[in-house]
Design a protein that fits this description.
Chain lengths: ~160, ~550
């Protein structure tokens, strides 16, 4: 079971099942499809959710996100901050309105920055971390920058 | 200087609360050491050889007497009663206990100070010329731009987990570069275009460490309102494309070198084009708001005290030396900027006791509007002293040991904490600095040598900036023994240059004699007013090598 947070709350339901690259399925309905599946068949209507690994080429797969409702970034290491920029790019440049989820080895202390970068849900590693992440959501009530949540930097709001 | 409003204060206060919670969770075993690591680093907390080390941010080197007194109090209450001024204009405490750090940060927040992003793989403290705002030849005051960068980079959600650390420096002088901008990830030179508008010449990809490189120009003129959009574009390109597989190849300089400037710039422009006219483009109102914090103090209308100083110099030649070496011309008639030398044989370069910094705080209030600056050379500056009060100030500085008239000389050594304190170091650096300072203790001799930067680092991380010292010394480890490699001809200024390695390294006890031989070659070779670097440039390394490695050794 995943320990999911969305919109500031714990979520028990998880509609998506993980699948590895080698498993073949007839339909991806209910699965988080690998990026390779999307790339090899971009018109596959059953793919509505993908899981992105660090090795996947953002410039390539981000061309095919129109029908997706969920993009999950699988953090290989929490110190790898590329997905922060990818999420912001998806929101601000590609206009992606669906759910952007953090998965894998991110840590609760990053959730605040992840939200500000455009992430909307978090599959934590365990219930303890999910509770910590929820407790840390409101660490900051002010920020200098424009971000995915607040479109104006502080200097335009001051 | 910049004074916090309720937003700035709230942010720093909330940061303290955040770090207190993180420390509590770490101590309770709920946060793994490897996960606490980047979180504490982003609050300036290293774990070092003997104890944690806390690096306190001094934004672009500027602080008030009140802030300095608080640092003194903190160092006395939570540490051993002394502090270290760093080459990036910050202040370090060398022995705080981890459990005390949240309380230290709270004490600092009360005087608008913090340790945010003074370490870790994020955007670090922005640095600039220690004489910013008082120089005659400035395009304009760089400090408002530094503050704008500080606010943009502070707790930036997207750039907290970069491939590696990221340093930005700003220079505004048209003739010198005391901020070494060409050796930063991004260097910004304030310039004016043909129509008189202010903007930035932007350099990218400079740095020291294992692969020392001077930054290359990416923009000849960036209009000022685009400063933050352009920085954001560069950081995005770096965050996505910078290497994460090898920490020694992770700085932006490696990316710029690998892609080539044209390809790198194309990526930046693609990003920039999307955001340049968006919400983070600077507004005139914001630039005006921040600039207002850096308006001139209430200077008196004075004449230069030329005659008075001449007679004081005549009566006290020692004062004359100090005046020449340790004071700087000021944009305002009748004023001077004074450098307090924190270099003294027997003391680690850049170290000062709580009592000393309290005395400095008092002097700054009496003589210089209660403001101080920390320099890249690890000295402290009082920037607005009346010329008529210089003699009195000099006498008081002598009493607390900060009047050594050695600023800019061979003895004004830049030096990292080295193997005495730092867990990364291969070799000690402070004893090397001391042995050189003791060997060259004749002031007339030092003055005859002229300005000469000698920089010492205890390892390849190059915190002592050895690559860009006219003479650079690098500590290396050879089968468990400490050796020192010497390089010549480095230059941190407008003629940005990486020094060249002289040859095989030396034992610690050989270093002072080696430096003497190098100096001898310089003195024998120089023509008229030729500087050390000019001689190295003209003659090459060969004459120096021949002397230093002569068989008669």
């Amino acid at each position: 079971m995943q320990h999911l947070i969305k919109e500031g709350q714990s979520l028990q339901d998880n509609n998506w099942t993980l699948i590895d690259n080698d498993t073949e399925v007839n339909s991806y309905t209910g699965y988080l499809a690998p990026v390779d599946a999307l790339l090899s068949n971009p018109t596959d209507e059953s793919i509505t959710a993908i899981i992105v690994k660090d090795a996947d080429d953002f410039n390539q797969w981000s061309q095919h996100i129109q029908k997706l409702s969920l993009i999950a970034f699988d953090f290989n290491a929490f110190a790898n901050g590329r997905a922060f920029t990818f999420a912001r790019t998806l929101r601000e440049d590609a206009g992606f309105k669906g759910d952007i989820r953090a998965l894998g080895n991110f840590i609760p202390d990053q959730v605040n920055y992840l939200i500000r970068s455009g992430f909307t849900s978090f599959a934590c590693r365990n219930e303890n971390e999910a509770q910590t992440a929820l407790a840390l959501l409101n660490t900051f009530s002010v920020s200098y920058q424009a971000d995915a949540v607040e479109s104006r930097p502080l200097f335009r709001r001051r | 200087m910049y004074v916090y409003d309720s937003y700035d204060q709230q942010l720093v206060d909330q940061r303290v609360a955040q770090f207190r919670d993180q420390t509590d969770r770490f101590l309770a075993g709920q946060l793994a050491p490897e996960e606490f690591l980047p979180l504490r680093l982003q609050n300036g907390l290293y774990v070092q050889r003997h104890a944690p080390m806390l690096r306190i941010a001094v934004p672009y080197g500027l602080l008030s007497a009140k802030q300095l007194r608080r640092v003194a109090r903190v160092s006395r209450q939570f540490d051993k009663g002394y502090v270290h001024f760093t080459t990036r204009q910050n202040i370090q405490l060398n022995w705080p206990a981890l459990e005390d750090v949240p309380d230290i940060l709270k004490e600092l927040a009360e005087v608008q100070m913090h340790a945010i992003q003074t370490s870790g793989n994020c955007i670090r403290n922005t640095t600039t010329d220690q004489f910013a705002g008082v120089l005659e030849d400035e395009v304009e005051d760089p400090r408002p731009w530094c503050e704008l960068i500080r606010q943009w980079s502070t707790l930036h959600p997207e750039f907290a987990f970069l491939p590696r650390k990221f340093k930005i420096a700003v220079n505004a002088s048209t003739s010198t570069d005391r901020a070494a901008i060409r050796f930063h990830d991004i260097g910004l030179q304030l310039v004016k275009n043909e129509t008189g508008e202010t903007g930035f010449q932007v350099f990218v990809g400079g740095g020291l460490g294992r692969t020392p490189l001077a930054g290359q120009e990416i923009e000849a003129f960036l209009p000022k309102q685009h400063l933050l959009t352009y920085l954001e574009a560069i950081l995005r390109v770096y965050n996505v494309n910078g290497r994460r597989d090898n920490k020694y190849k992770a700085r932006i300089k490696i990316l710029v070198k690998a892609l080539g400037m044209d390809s790198f710039k194309a990526l930046v422009l693609k990003q920039w084009d999307r955001i340049k006219d968006g919400a983070i483009q600077l507004t005139e109102d914001e630039v005006t708001r921040v600039s207002a914090h850096f308006s001139d103090p209430s200077y008196e209308t004075l004449e230069d005290a030329t005659e008075l100083l001449a007679s004081q110099r005549f009566e006290q030649p020692e004062f004359g030396h100090w005046l020449r070496q340790n004071t700087q011309a000021h944009k305002k008639q009748g004023y001077a900027a004074v450098t307090l030398s924190l270099k003294k044989p027997g003391y680690a370069p850049g170290d000062a006791t709580a009592e000393q910094i309290e005395a400095i705080a008092d002097l700054s209030e009496h003589y210089s509007y209660g403001e101080l600056r920390v320099s890249h050379q690890q000295n402290v500056i009082l920037s607005d002293v009346k010329q008529t009060e210089l003699f009195e100030l000099w006498q008081k500085l002598k009493l607390i040991g900060f009047a050594d008239a050695t600023v800019g000389t061979l003895n004004d050594v830049i030096c990292c904490p080295g193997g005495d304190y730092c867990a990364l170091a291969n070799a000690k650096s402070i004893p090397i600095a001391e042995s050189i300072q003791r060997k060259f203790d004749n002031l007339d001799y030092l003055y005859d040598l002229g300005d000469l930067d000698l920089n010492i680092s205890g390892c390849m991380n190059a915190c002592g900036h050895h690559h860009i010292g006219n003479i650079g010394i690098l500590g290396v480890d050879k089968k468990g023994e400490e050796f020192y490699q010497v390089s010549l001809g480095g230059d941190s200024g407008v003629n940005a240059n990486i020094g060249k390695i002289l040859g095989p390294s030396f034992k610690a006890e050989e270093v002072p004699a080696v430096i003497q031989k190098i100096i001898d070659v310089y003195l024998e070779s120089r023509e008229q007013d030729e500087s050390f670097s000019q001689v190295v440039h003209r003659k090459g390394l060969d004459p120096f090598k021949e002397r230093v490695y002569a068989a008669s050794n």
